[in-house]
Amino acid sequence: MEKINEIIMKLGLDNQVTLEDIPNIDLYMDQVIQLFENTFSDSKRNEEEKVLTKTMINNYAKGKLFFPIKQKKYSKEHILLISLIYQLKGALSINDIKQTLEGINEKVVDEEMNLDSFYNSYLHLANQNVERFKENVQTQVKEVKEEMQGTDPDLEQALMIASLVHMSNLYRKAAERLVDELFLTSLKD
After folding, report:
1. End-to-end alpha-carbon separation of the chain, Å?
2. What percent of the chain has pLDDT over 70?
3. Where does this protein have coiled-coil stretches (predicted)?
4. Cα(115)–Cα(111) distance, rounded to whole angstroms?
5. How confident is the model at residue 105 (pLDDT cuts 50, 70, 90)?
6. pTM value?
7. CB under 8 Å, gap of 24 or more: what pairs does 6-13 form?
């Protein structure tokens, strides 16, 4: 548990695809994959893990998680949506992601929204979430130590793992309920 700060540093929590990272030209699939590999390589659990693959992108396209590409090239809007998918897939099912992004895709295609502005708002909140996460982990470490009162370090670590997973599940369940609400709202329209 003493290495928790070191672990947090290695997670690459601040890594995000920013608007400045995306060239002003449409990209081929290999270029999109390279952009994501360069951005998120620090957050991989091991060297064999892939951040993004052709199969993943093709499955997102087949699942209609983003609007169709043109001439085998991905626009800035596609890349922003793929970035959101990348973040959402850690907690939500593909169907939940589709429901979440459906209205955004429609508005982008109909030119009713500025995806750049929405994505910048997401990045702003993501940065705040990282800071809150770091503070919360420190609080949980303290609470686990108090709970275990200096017993076996392996038990301390197991309790910390269980506590973090529980917190993750609480956030995931809340997000899933919000997806359900979004779906019910879209049925009424």
Report:
1. 50
2. 98
3. 94-147
4. 9
5. very high
6. 0.91
7. 8/134, 8/137, 10/42, 11/42, 11/43, 12/40, 12/41, 12/42, 12/43, 13/43, 13/130, 13/133, 13/134
